[in-house]
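Entry:
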Amino acid sequence: MMNPKLSVGGRLWLINALMSIAIVVVIDQAWRTLDRHRLAAESLAAVRLAQFHHQNTIAAHDSIRAEITDPALAGAAVQARIRTHVERARREVLPGDGQRLPKALADGHAALRPDIDRQLARAQRIADATGRNSENAAREAAAFRAAYVVLQRSMQAQAELIDQHVRLAQTNLDQELVATKQRMLLLGGLVVLTAVLLVALIGSSVRHSLRNVSGVARRIAGGELGVRTQVGSTDELGELGDSINTMAQSLESMIERLRAEAEADAFGTHLAEALEMADSETQAHAVVGHAMQVLAPRVPMELHLSEADRLHLKRAVQHPHAGAAGCPVDTSAQCVAVRRGSTQVFTDSEALNACPKLRGRGTRNLCAVCVPVSFMGRSLGVLHASASLQEVPDREWVTRFTTLGMQAGARIGTLRTILRTQQQADTDALTGLQNRRALERVVEDLQSGAQPYALVMADLDYFKRLNDTQGHDAGDRALRVFAELLRRVAGANGHAVRWGGEEFLLLLPALDASQAHEVAQSVRQELARTKLSGGVSVTASFGVADSAMAESFNAVVEICDAALYQAKAAGRNRVTVGAVASLGGVQHPLTPTPLQEPLPAE
């Protein structure tokens, strides 16, 4: 054991010094080991690189010899190929000059270099003489072939020498790798052993010195965070005891903070689950109101949300019991929290930097919290709470209130997006009327409740002629005018649908064909009196049927369509009511009833 007269700091310093020395020794040995392995790897890489360049040099000379031996040694193409192989051979032989090679390889390389240069010079002269001086080219080619045999033997001998050195370098690297692993294992074992010994040594020394405070530490570890150790000295042990007391105090504070955060997390989780179950914005408003009551039973709160124009704000939710906070903000631009994009806490309504809209609310000063409500970066409104100065909210309450604003914005924004998407999917882009998809759901609801209905199918007369003579813009205006007329006639209970092209459909619940005929007549007459831009007028033909005429909606539509066809055939600009009769047990549309009332010719 270490000398007990040494202070704890002295003992730690001594152990650190010994550990540092051991680490330095281990690092030095590891560095040397890795350096030897690196040198072996570099040697192998240099020899392999020399082998690569030498093989490429041999291949280039073989290519030159093949070109020179070719009986068709003539022409610019042969000349260009010879020059290409010469340049390739020169590039391959040059990199070997600067490599760190064994002396035998370097000497062999140096001995071959003059012969290679002479041979490449001959090849260059052959290329220059090709096509211009065939005698010189043939003479140089003969000299090249004679020297090639000798040079080939020398280069092959050099290649075998390189192969030997490659095998030797590879063996050396393998051996060095094994040795490196052994040395690293040994050094690692020494480090571990040294660390174990030093840790055991300091553990024994410090354990002897800490017996006076271990009991307190165990009680704190057991959960008795209120217990404290008696600090009777100012040395390291006294500092340790004081540190334990500080740790216990910090643990108490941290546990309180974690408890508050857990409560906030639980509130956020429960709020998210409740909002997730809200299928409409009205239900989401109810969840927000209930959450306000959970947060503070007696603090006035309110949620202002933007209307369809996205500018003006309207109070959507207020505290169920404490009521609204009374914020007079009208637009998002007027709200400081919305402009700043973060939660704002005002501790005194009369402070210089307080929100101006807090002043003048009654006879007493107020504090307030404002949370911007947004969805995907777009402002939806603001969540506002106010109270007396004696009820200034703490940080945990502000955090939960902020959570309410964020999650309410996310859910309400999602519900609005879903609703807008559904409306776009169910609406005709040009006229704004419902499309077939939306009508199918309405019909399903009517048929499931066995509710009667009437159908009016309408088609603009001579619509193609209108497009051809007045242009497609005039045709689009006519469709929009007719659609607005149908929408107005359908009212709150009916449904106006663009069936396709210039065809429209009116679904009139609880009406029969006779009543629908009157509705269609009023539409027909008003449309005929309507003037488009330029004094152009349009008319429409109508077919009428009701659910009593057939069992299925498609069959009622067929009757309507047949009646519309009869109206067209009878001269257009009229209303025709369809009829059915039983033929062989199957219902067929027959000649429409003579409920036709065209406008007099103008």
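Residues 212-274 form one domain.
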